[in-house]
Design brief:
Length: 96
């Protein structure tokens, strides 16, 4: 019979980082030397996507108009940082 965590054991042997689920606190924790007990939950540590940064030059000219770019351009006065995984705005910084 195939071991329940066989794929994870192989991935760990190849260098993957393994996490173990702690049901007491409801979170995943790094596990450097996993035991791979059948009754425990393990997973390969997810790779987080990097944050995404946009630069903007908002102005009010009758209507609000904005130029946005992923690189700072002349006149950029706002830097917006978004979470790479969720897409949610993390930081907004006024550039002077």
């Amino acid at each position: 019979m195939r071991q329940k965590h066989a794929d994870l054991i192989h991935a760990w042997a190849e260098g993957a980082e393994i996490e173990i689920y702690d049901p007491c606190v409801g979170q995943w924790n790094e596990c450097s030397y996993p035991s791979f007990f059948n009754k425990r939950k393990y997973r390969i540590k997810p790779t987080l996507k990097p944050d995404v940064v946009w630069y903007a030059n908002p102005r009010i000219d009758g209507d609000i108009c904005t130029y946005m770019s992923t690189i700072p351009v002349a006149g950029s006065n706002l830097k917006l940082t978004f979470d790479g995984d969720t897409g949610e705005l993390k930081y907004a910084e006024v550039i002077k």
